[in-house]
Design a protein that fits this description.
The protein is of the alpha+beta class. The protein is built from eight helices and seven strands. It folds into two domains: 20-284, CorA soluble domain-like (Beta Polymerase, domain 2), CATH 3.30.460; 288-351, Methane Monooxygenase Hydroxylase, Chain G, domain 1 (Up-down Bundle), CATH 1.20.58.340. It has a seven-stranded mixed β-sheet with strand order 2-1-3-7-6-5-4, with helices on both faces.
Length: 355
């Protein structure tokens, strides 16, 4: 439930644009990485002071500033003021429970989305907010912690593979979003394997732990849907944007990201239906097991009904019961009769396929 409800009580009563970090602190310290490149040149370095990045704002090269750690609100405010970011944008950056969205501020574009990875140890989704600012000659990305899915993008820039060094900032923004969306497929594959394993366990031996895992899966799928579903609107807005910051050539690539987003949403809906169906399978399995137990108990009780009747008749204290004086009354008259009745009922149940 903590994933589904954003804890924003710290901002209650504060005016719009208040720089208050909302969310979990996921980095010990802030790390600033600078990548500056064009078709012929490339430079990457980790800087200790954000002011060293400011001089590249007006250069013709593509500048990518990546900031890991959003708890330092003073640093975020300093970046926002220098690059002319609206105070509401700065507020959204440090509020890590934002819904994925896209906003056009003429001089720059602001995009918020979720970066999702699958934690094998916790067997759960690990999520962080990524805020992206696309300007004329720069891209600024804000992440909650060190470590992301952008390593292949960095390698392509460094090795000058493909067209990324020949394109502008809009293509860099596309590449970052494309890498994020592609990572969703890996998360869905992990969920698919978990669901298949759980289905086998569900059919073989359903128990309380299985029910708990189904509930956990439903919660995770709900959170996954909440994180991905709004992204469709974001990418659709980017591909249809009339902003001069996105060229017609790059809009085509955003259309490809949009198609991937639709595929991911369809897969999530299918997996959600499977998880919901697993709960029905669990209840059906329990019902079948209960029916099997009741069937056995009913057969045993049915067999003992005539035996109880016979024992009750001969347990009465009547003085004149002729067969009581017979020598073989107990072994033949009672036990043989009992055995014949039991065997006859078992044969009858077998023919009716109740056994």
């Amino acid at each position: 439930m903590a994933k589904l409800v954003n804890k924003r009580s710290r901002k209650s009563g504060l005016p719009p644009g208040s720089m208050v970090h909302v969310g979990e602190r996921k980095a010990e310290s802030v790390r600033i990485t600078l990548i500056d490149y064009d078709e012929a040149n490339y430079r990457q370095e980790e800087v200790s002071e954000i002011e060293r990045c400011f001089e590249l704002k007006t250069t013709p090269t593509v500048t990518w500033i990546n900031i890991d750690g959003m708890h330092d609100t003073a640093l975020i405010e300093k970046v926002g003021n220098h690059f002319g970011l609206h105070h509401l944008v700065q507020e959204d950056i440090v509020s890590t429970g934002q819904r994925p969205k896209f906003e056009d501020y003429d001089d720059y574009l602001f995009v918020v989305f979720r970066m999702l990875t699958y934690d094998q140890k916790k067997r759960a989704i690990d999520s962080e907010q990524v805020s992206l600012v696309l300007g004329k000659n720069f891209v600024i990305s804000f992440q909650e912690r060190v470590g992301d899915v952008f390593e292949q993008v960095r390698e392509r820039i460094k090795a000058a593979k493909g067209r990324i060094r020949k394109m502008g900032c809009d293509y860099l923004a596309y590449s970052l979003m494309d890498a994020t969306v592609d990572s969703y497929f890996s998360v869905l594959e992990q969920f698919g394997e978990r669901i298949e394993t759980l289905e086998e366990k569900l059919v073989a031996e359903p128990d309380v732990r299985t029910l708990n895992e189904i509930g956990h899966l439903k919660s995770e799928m709900l959170y996954l849907r909440k994180s991905v579903w709004p992204l469709r609107e974001v990418v659709n807005g980017l591909q249809k944007s009339e902003s001069d910051l996105i060229s017609d050539g790059t809009s085509i690539y955003f259309r490809d990201v949009y198609d991937h987003t639709i595929q991911i949403i369809d897969t999530i809906e299918s997996l959600r239906d499977m998880v919901s169906g697993m709960l029905d399978i669990y209840l059906s399995s329990l019902s079948n097991r209960m029916n099997a137990v009741m069937k056995v108990l009913t057969i045993i009780a049915t067999i003992f009904i005539p035996l109880t009747f016979v024992a009750g008749v001969y347990g009465m204290n009547f003085k004149y019961m002729p067969e009581l004086g017979w020598k073989w009354a107990y072994p033949v008259g009672f036990w043989v009769f009992i055995i014949v009745v039991v065997c006859g009922m078992l044969v009858f149940f077998r023919r009716k396929k109740w056994l």
